[in-house]
Amino acid sequence: MIRELGLLDEHLDRHHAEFGRPVRDDQRGVAYPSVFLLDAGGMVVRKRAHRNYRIRDTGAGLVEEMLGGTASAHGVEAAADDEVVRIRAYLDSPTYRWYQRLRVVVDVAVQDGYHIYGTPIPEGYVPLSAAIDPIDGLEVGEADWPRPHPFRESGLSEEFWVHEGTVRGSIPLMFTKDGTGDHRIRVTVRYQACSATACLPPAHVRFELPVHEVAAVDAPAKQ
Questions:
Q1: How far is CA 215 from its chain centroid?
Q2: CATH tag, 55-213
Q3: One digit per residue, pLDDT tens: the chain, 223 residues?
Q4: Residue 213: enclosing H or E segment and its boundaries?
Q5: In the chain, domain spans
Q6: What distance in Å separates the CA atoms of residue 187 and residue 26, rounded to the nearest whole number?
Q7: Does the CA dihedral 127-130-133-137 come out positive or negative?
């Protein structure tokens, strides 16, 4: 079960103290939404609160991030593949609002017998990464990938960190300007695939993911 609650003024000082930060005057009187994931017995197993009260998650993004798996609906998918790697990318929502937190989801499927490099990595090799082209008013966070596992190549002294099988990463992003219109999010994924006996040249793929701006939801006028 997922529940979303507001953070009250009386809790602000204690909550901010946990992060070693004072409460600003402009933060009082404003509800900070917080998300709690409850198990079948009603115990909190995960919780999250954004640092800015304006920030909201998409429904699909919240389900995927808190519960895992893939939501039943999300943005348009784009895919590309070479001889050993298949990559799929999509936005967790086809639409956005001002200060809504979106995620670009990147699925990388590696053929059995091959791996792709993670980080840290010795100089001269290309690790898995994803980057988003800049757009005015778009804030992009750090890509989040699963932790790779250590691997040693026969005959080489360096230690490598690699991914095998299917890897899912995500990149948080958010439009902080209202009325910027529709966009195409351009994503570049870089990687290098190797087996125990051979390495393929570094490769990259580019995707364009459309997203449509919808009007912000205004609070109803007081009677």
A1: 23
A2: 2.60.40.1250
A3: 444 444 555 666 776 776 677 877 766 666 667 777 788 888 887 777 666 666 777 766 666 676 666 666 788 899 999 989 999 999 999 999 888 889 999 999 999 999 999 998 888 889 999 999 999 999 999 999 999 999 877 666 678 899 999 999 999 999 988 888 999 999 999 999 998 888 899 999 999 999 999 876 654 444 4
A4: strand 203-213
A5: 1-53, 55-213
A6: 36
A7: negative
Report helix, strand or coil for 12: helix
Per DSSP, what are the bridge partners of residue 95?
A: 212
Tokens of 197: 């006996």
CA 147 vs CA 71, 106, 128, 189, 190: distances in Å = 23, 15, 12, 17, 17
Is the preceding peptide bond at 172 cis, omega within 30 degrees of 0?
no
Cβ-in-10-Å burial (0-12, 13-18, 19+) of 33 comes to middle
Instruction: Kindly state the tokens that stand for 53.
Output: 């009260």
CA dihedral 62, 68, 72, 74 (to 10 degrees): 50
The DSSP annotation for 14-78 comes to HHHHHTT-PPPGGGTT--EEEEEEE-TTS-EEEEEE-SSTT-EE-HHHHHHHHH-S--S--S--E
Quick one: which H or E segment has residue 105?
strand 100-110
Gap between the Cα atoms of 130 and 206, Å rounded: 10
Tokens of 37: 């994931």
